[in-house]
Amino acid sequence: MPDETGVALRRRMQGAKSDALQEALAALDPGLARWADEFVFGEVWARPGLTVDERRLVALTALAVGGHTAQLRNYLHGALQDGFEPEKLREALVMTLVYAGFPQAIASLVTLKEVLASHERAAGGAP
Question: May I ask the CATH class of domain 51-127?
Fold first, then answer.
């Protein structure tokens, strides 16, 4: 049985599509979905020492530096849906240019721009 703290944190980090993402993991292998809830979010994300928002910035920058655009996109959506400031997201991604290089930072900032546009459209704003 998944740890409810892990499930809640996963949903908060991944946003509105978190359950669909979890189903996609389970379709690949049921263990992946269970490990995400129990270990990744239930243990690692629930540790003391950093706030959830600090952990979110670490996760976002790690995904950006690693070039994991699909997961980065999911976490950016989750951050915005959770009320995270877009400017903080942008600044965290800009920092990656020093440590991961311009190409990776640019790709991550393009992903953020697309996610922000999607949120604006969903809110009824300009495209």
Answer: mainly alpha
